[in-house]
């Protein structure tokens, strides 16, 4: 495996940024259907869940050339793009949409011409509606439908990049979409959960098989790598030296780390999961042949979405004995629970914990368990209510968040973790599944009240430019300098950047 230069990147996701939902031959996905059916707008200023239209979103579908120029000015080295299966296969599992392929080809080519490496993620929660109507990830046929999709992607787009991912955040997708109705397909069914998770893992193995074939055909470079991206929140025992809480963390890791990484890295499932299937009398058999196939087709590297650690206690702990920032969470297995202590813990305005302390130790744990594979931070960022009423958008809290986390990535590299890149969430403001358009994540502001979705850089844009230019060495936050830099950027922010 070749030695790679470290990439500073940004990440985004098709259904959150793209728009153009029924243009270019595209049809609906489960997210189109979900947002139409569950449309809700909370009061202004409330940190509540907004489920809004994604018909236009940030309109990347039309504005990708503008965005590529903005990324080039930033010095961005990569763009992680969670792709949209439905745009390429809008009708069924066999019929390629030429317009969908051509659009992606134009986007990837434009990015490369602007010095930005496309880093595609082939699937992120957005099952085509035609597939869902036939059972979606509960239907084993989806494995072959997905095979055709990835073959097309490698054939037509493989020339643009040598870094690929299969899936992103399988844990959130299956837990929130198959054991809950928080996200589509809102199944709330244990058997559906098991089937969906297993067939997701099988699609990854199928993708690896096709990845190797695509290399042999010359569609992909021989050095190309294929990874799986997981959103593991490393646990911290609520009571530091309490044996029950330490044990609860170990069980938590089996469910929230090993269950989602072992299948596509080791070709196995943790015993807690297999025992749970038996105890719940779930009528689904994971065959020996499937496990052998996954073991034969492991992923090449690990993507990690690090936002925060989590505090875990034994299930028996009485959470009324401590002050909480928000209610504790219980899970479908009653062996641990997640708590949000108010004392000595920092939170964002959206009540997400701010704590980079488990990034290095978590990376070392992953390395110890899965070997010296390449690693890449694929998502790390902070949702906030940005003040966009002034000439300069001063998002200092976001810069402070990014600074302390990038510093830990550099420490992990020094500690021997083979990090090949850091990708922040996200390039520009987008639709958030948890906050709609009121939850700002981007380095670049998007005016969602503007018909052209006008772009404008924030202070974090000037800061990340400094970070990239210094190769991660200059993380200083000099307000005077950064504001001067941002003003200089805005002076050259002509109509080609809006």
TrEMBL record:
<comment type="similarity">
    <text>Belongs to the glycosyl hydrolase 1 family.</text>
</comment>
<dbReference type="GO" id="GO:0016052">
    <property type="term" value="P:carbohydrate catabolic process"/>
</dbReference>
<dbReference type="GO" id="GO:0005829">
    <property type="term" value="C:cytosol"/>
</dbReference>
<keyword id="KW-0378">Hydrolase</keyword>
<dbReference type="Pfam" id="PF00232">
    <property type="entry name" value="Glyco_hydro_1"/>
</dbReference>
<keyword id="KW-0326">Glycosidase</keyword>
<dbReference type="InterPro" id="IPR017853">
    <property type="entry name" value="GH"/>
</dbReference>
<dbReference type="InterPro" id="IPR001360">
    <property type="entry name" value="Glyco_hydro_1"/>
</dbReference>
<protein>
    <submittedName>
        <fullName>6-phospho-beta-glucosidase</fullName>
    </submittedName>
</protein>
<dbReference type="GO" id="GO:0008422">
    <property type="term" value="F:beta-glucosidase activity"/>
</dbReference>
């Amino acid at each position: 495996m070749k030695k790679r230069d470290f990439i500073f990147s940004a990440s985004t996701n098709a259904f959150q940024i793209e728009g153009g939902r029924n243009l270019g031959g595209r049809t609906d996905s489960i997210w189109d259907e979900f947002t139409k059916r569950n449309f809700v707008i909370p009061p202004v200023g409330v940190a509540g869940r907004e489920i809004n239209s994604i018909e236009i979103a940030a309109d990347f579908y039309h504005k990708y050339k503008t965005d590529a120029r903005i990324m080039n000015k930033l010095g961005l080295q990569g763009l992680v793009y969670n792709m949209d299966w439905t745009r390429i296969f809008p009708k069924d599992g066999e019929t390629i949409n030429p317009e969908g392929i051509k659009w992606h080809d134009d986007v990837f080519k434009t990015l490369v011409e602007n010095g930005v490496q496309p880093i595609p993620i082939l699937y992120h929660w957005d099952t085509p509606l035609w597939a869902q109507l036939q059972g979606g990830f509960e239907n084993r046929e989806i494995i072959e439908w997905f095979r055709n999709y990835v073959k097309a992607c490698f054939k037509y787009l493989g020339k643009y990049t040598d870094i690929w991912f299969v899936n992103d955040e399988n844990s959130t997708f299956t837990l929130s979409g198959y054991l809950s109705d928080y996200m589509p397909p809102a199944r709330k069914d244990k058997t559906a959960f098991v089937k969906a998770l297993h067939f997701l893992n099988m699609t990854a193995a199928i993708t690896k098989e096709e990845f190797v074939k695509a290399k042999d055909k010359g569609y992909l470079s021989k050095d190309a790598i294929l990874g799986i991206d997981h959103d593991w929140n490393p646990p911290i025992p609520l009571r530091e030296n309490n044996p029950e809480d330490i044990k609860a963390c170990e069980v938590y890791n089996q469910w929230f780390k090993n269950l989602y990484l072992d299948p596509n890295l080791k070709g196995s499932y943790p015993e807690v999961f297999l025992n749970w299937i038996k105890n719940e009398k779930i009528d689904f058999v994971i065959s020996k042949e499937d496990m052998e196939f996954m073991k034969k087709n492991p992923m090449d590297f690990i993507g990690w979405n690090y936002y925060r650690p989590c505090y875990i206690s034994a299930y028996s702990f009485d959470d009324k004995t401590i002050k909480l920032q928000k209610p504790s969470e219980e899970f479908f297995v009653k062996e641990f629970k997640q708590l949000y202590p108010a004392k000595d813990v920092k939170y964002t305005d959206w009540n997400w914990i701010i704590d980079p302390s488990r990034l290095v130790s978590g990376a070392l744990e992953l390395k110890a368990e899965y070997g010296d594979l390449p690693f890449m931070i694929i998502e790390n960022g902070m949702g906030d209510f940005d003040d966009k009423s002034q000439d300069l958008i001063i998002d200092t809290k976001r810069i402070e968040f990014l600074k302390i986390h990038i510093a830990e990535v550099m420490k992990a590299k020094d500690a021997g973790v083979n990090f090949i890149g850091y990708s922040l969430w996200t390039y520009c403001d987008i639709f958030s599944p948890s906050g709609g358009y009121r939850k700002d994540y981007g380095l670049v502001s998007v005016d969602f009240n503007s018909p052209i979705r006008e772009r404008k850089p924030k202070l974090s844009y000037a800061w990340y430019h400094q970070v990239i230019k210094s190769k991660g060495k200059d993380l200083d936050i000099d307000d005077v300098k950064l504001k001067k830099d941002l003003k200089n950027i805005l002076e050259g922010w002509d109509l080609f950047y809006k």
